[in-house]
Design goal:
Blueprint lengths: L2 E4 L4 E4 L10 H48 L3 H8 L4 E7 L1 E3 L2 E18 L13 E4 L6 E2 L4 E5 L2 E7 L15 H12 L14 H13 L5 E2 L4 H30 L44 H29 L2 E2 L5 E4 L4 E6 L12 E14 L1 H4 L7 E5 L7 E8 L30 E7 L11 E10 L4 E5 L4 E2 L5 E6 L5 E12 L2 E6 L10 E8 L2 H8 L1
Parallel strand pairs: 9-12
Antiparallel strand pairs: 1-2, 3-24, 4-19, 5-14, 5-18, 6-8, 7-13, 8-9, 10-11, 13-14, 14-17, 15-16, 15-18, 16-17, 19-23, 20-21, 21-22, 21-24, 22-23
Helix pairs in contact: 5-6
């Protein structure tokens, strides 16, 4: 097949045996050998270039190795110089004008001033067991005066203000300081105890107690289960005594009027004394209003009537006294199992150990009351540094800024860290309640503002300014002070030209690593002066560079 190839005049057909230039077969073989010769020449040139490059690289490597080896070789003089100690560095610090504070750092725990354990006595009696039937407060809840904390066998456990712990049932007729505390608590809650005298549980106190229970949806327990029957019997006795006194008085009055008719005698058979089991025994043999008592004679009926009337009047007075006593004994009861006294309100529920359905045994919950304070223990070495009234700061992770505070109590005796709780309120001790921890001297720190309840039970850091300068003073690091054999003190001031001047000073207060200094005589010391605080050897490299 012919092929069209471009020529001088256009396209020219050629056969396959011809070459690209239109030559014959013989000439084509000669032309084909020319490229092979050119390829061989190029390969030779490439090999020569590679050998030249390898030779150059080897020369560079050898040269670099020589330089490194030369750098590692030191002369004996250089080795001796390197072994010598470098010149020392002079350490300085500036003279400052500052307020010096001697700070003591202690760690303590945030807690309330009073901890009360609520441990209601069993109240189920023989007819049933004591179980928790209601919970009105949980952990973290606030407690106010008069609140119901929980129910035990359907009966409330109430929180009342007071410092004397509940130790007995209070009922009508009771007297004492604990009665006065109850009366004050009831009055504070709006229930008058008039006309009862302070410290005496009378009708006024009973009425106030009934009103207090009623406002909380409960009926108070009766002081005497059979009280109502006893009062009713005493009232019947009074009624009968009144009638007998009236009858005898009327008979005596009639007999005393002038008349020609004979004076009637009283029946020889005595009338039965009404409710004799409830009335006091008469002071005579014949009893009240009987004719057989002393002073009654058969020969003087008028005298007999007068004596009977007087005895009837006395019996009536005694019956009325008995009724008043029964009424005083009748009234509401405040059982010891239904009240918890707390010194200060509001209080907080710190822990709860029971639930509805739990049997009553031991403590049911723990309350804390009063302001939150920090209680800490310090070693004996720090006791002399802390005094009541000193300022302090409370530092906590929960508070962004230090909380201003002050020292309110420092113990003068070692505390053995015994845990203390109460089942009611008590007189506040001179110092804080002990907390579990290592032995030490108790310290109480009170914040200038109320602490957040979230801090209760947390550990905090307290810084106390044990001593402080009156204002800003010249101060230098303690290490800058040099003592002379004659007892004088001085500092070495490094001037800008490298010269050191000895300046005699009078040392003062020392705190936080600084000491107050004042120049003596004509010596001058200014804020910003650099004083020598020490000398240390430089690093080897740095020493050589400085020398150079």
């Amino acid at each position: 097949m012919d092929e069209l190839r471009p020529g001088k005049g256009g396209t020219t057909p050629v056969d396959e045996g011809a070459d690209a230039e239109g030559v014959g077969p013989g000439e084509g073989r000669a032309a084909a050998s020319a490229p092979r010769e050119r390829t061989a020449t190029a390969s030779a040139l490439a090999r020569r270039r590679r050998w030249a490059l390898a030779t150059a690289v080897a020369a560079v490597v050898v040269s670099a190795s020589g330089v490194v080896a030369a750098a590692r070789i030191t002369s004996p003089a250089e080795a001796a110089a390197a072994a010598e100690a470098p010149p020392p560095d002079v350490l300085t610090a500036p003279v400052e004008r500052r307020v010096l504070k001697d700070t003591v750092i202690i760690r303590g725990t945030v807690a309330a001033t009073q901890v009360v354990e609520v441990a209601p006595a069993e109240s189920g009696g023989a007819s049933g067991r004591s179980v928790v039937t209601g919970m009105t407060k949980g952990v973290g809840d606030g407690v106010r005066a008069g609140d119901v904390l929980l129910e035990v066998s359907g009966r409330p456990v109430l929180a009342l203000p007071g410092r004397i712990p509940a130790y007995r049932d209070l009922k009508p007729g009771a007297r004492g300081k604990d009665v006065g505390q109850l009366q004050q608590a009831l009055r504070d809650l709006g229930h008058s105890t008039a006309p009862d005298r302070p410290g005496t549980f009378g009708p006024g106190t009973g009425k106030a107690l009934s009103g207090f229970y009623g406002k909380r949806g409960y009926e108070p327990r009766a002081a005497r289960p059979d009280g109502e029957e006893a009062v009713a019997a005493a009232r019947r006795a009074v009624t009968e005594a009144e009638r007998l006194a009236q009858d005898t008085a009327a008979a005596a009055a009639r007999a005393a009027r002038p008349t020609s008719a004979p004076v009637p005698r009283l029946p020889s058979t005595p009338r039965p004394a009404p409710s004799a089991d409830r009335l006091p025994a008469p002071g005579t043999e014949g009893g009240a209003g009987t004719p057989g008592g002393p002073g009654a004679t058969d020969d003087d009926p008028l005298a007999e009537l007068g004596t009977a009337a007087a005895r009837a009047a006395r019996d009536l007075a005694e019956a009325r006294e008995a009724l008043a006593e029964e009424e005083r004994r009748q009234g509401p009861l405040l059982p010891v199992s239904e009240v918890v006294y707390v010194a200060e309100f509001p209080a907080r529920v710190e822990s709860v150990s029971v639930a509805v359905g739990s049997a009553v045994s031991g403590g049911a919950m723990t309350l804390s009351s009063g302001e939150l304070v920090v209680t800490a223990r310090i070693p004996e070495s720090q006791v002399g540094l802390l005094k009541v009234g000193q300022g302090a700061e409370i530092h906590s992770e929960q508070a962004r800024e230090p909380i201003p505070a002050g020292i309110s109590f420092v113990a003068d005796a070692l505390d053995r860290a015994e845990t203390k709780t109460t089942t009611g309120a008590e007189e506040e001790p001179e110092g804080p309640d002990p907390r579990t921890g290592p032995p030490g001297y108790l310290v109480r720190v009170e914040a200038r503002r109320p602490l957040d309840d979230a801090l209760s039970g947390r550990e905090v850091r307290v810084t106390v300014a044990a001593a402080q300068s009156g204002g800003k003073v010249f101060a230098v690091p303690v290490t800058a002070l040099v003592s002379a054999p004659d007892g004088s003190s001085a500092v070495s001031v490094l001037r800008a030209d490298g010269k050191r001047d000895r300046v005699e000073v009078r040392p003062g207060m020392e705190a936080d690593g600084f000491v107050e200094v004042g120049p003596v005589g004509g010596d001058v010391l200014a804020a910003g002066d650099q004083v020598v605080v020490g000398i240390r050897p430089s690093e080897s490299g740095g020493g050589r560079e400085d020398a150079r």
